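Renewal narrative, Specific Aim 1. Our central claim is that a sequence can be written position by position from structural information alone. The example that follows is taken directly from our test logs and has not been curated for this report. It begins with the structure tokens describing the chain, in the order in which they were read.
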């Protein structure tokens, strides 16, 4: 089993590149953003709670997100591996993920961090907001999301760096070129499935 974390600030292309990675390497995709939006659209109690935070550009509380992830890992126990997209986003989430995986006799093998300048992130998220209808893609909320990223999520990169698992890739190139750079790192662990 090979487990990958795709890390980066809001709008860095985690969701976009996850699609390419999933179709090339046949990993099981776990996107906490997608899972939360699904809960919101189904008006579940978890979704109603999460929406309060997401609409303000804030992170959803750790216990809500961690509880949601655990079941998803169990559902796909025969997978070739997982790609965690947008998770973990805090140090407690990273520690909880390590414990969950250890319990399942596996671990995170590689963390790929997308590095994109802040002006480009804002431009992309405003562009996505014009078409996606997402509540977190207007200028004030984007600023708040980037502030949350610096204070709560950036420490996750340090955590994985301390464990020797972090590789940084410039995410400011075209979608195809960025994918090629990510693939170079993944190919050291896993070959593409045609
Ligand atoms: P997410 O759904 O994870 O999404 P994101 O960070 O906004 O974007 P992503 O990096 O995936 O960018 P994308 O590919 O779409 O988070 C949403 C919210 O959910 C969070 O704010 C939080 O409230 C909550 N949440 C999620 N996980 C959580 C957790 N673990 N803990 C707590 N709360 C959590 O790309 C953006 C745009 O750029 C797209 O339009 C795309 O087409 C474009 N683009 C991508 N790559 C490009 C490139 N190379 N060049 C040009 N454009 C590009």
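The sequence written for that structure reads:
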């Amino acid at each position: 089993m090979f487990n990958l974390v795709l890390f980066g600030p809001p709008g860095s292309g985690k969701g976009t590149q996850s699609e390419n990675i999933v179709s090339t390497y046949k990993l099981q995709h776990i996107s906490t953003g997608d899972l939360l939006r699904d809960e919101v659209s189904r008006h579940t109690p978890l979704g109603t709670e999460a929406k309060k935070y997401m609409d303000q550009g804030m992170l959803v509380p750790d216990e809500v997100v961690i509880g949601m992830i655990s079941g998803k890992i169990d559902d796909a126990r025969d997978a070739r591996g997982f790609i965690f997209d947008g998770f973990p986003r805090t140090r407690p989430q990273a520690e909880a993920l390590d414990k969950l995986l250890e319990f399942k006799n596996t671990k995170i093998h590689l963390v790929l961090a997308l590095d994109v300048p802040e002006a480009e992130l804002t431009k992309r998220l405003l562009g996505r907001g014009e078409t996606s209808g997402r509540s977190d893609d207007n200028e004030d909320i984007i600023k708040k999301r980037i502030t949350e990223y610096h204070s709560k999520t950036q420490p996750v990169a340090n955590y994985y760096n301390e464990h020797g698992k972090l590789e940084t890739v410039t995410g400011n190139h075209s979608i195809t070129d960025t994918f090629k750079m990510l693939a170079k790192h993944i190919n050291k662990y896993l070959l593409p499935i045609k």
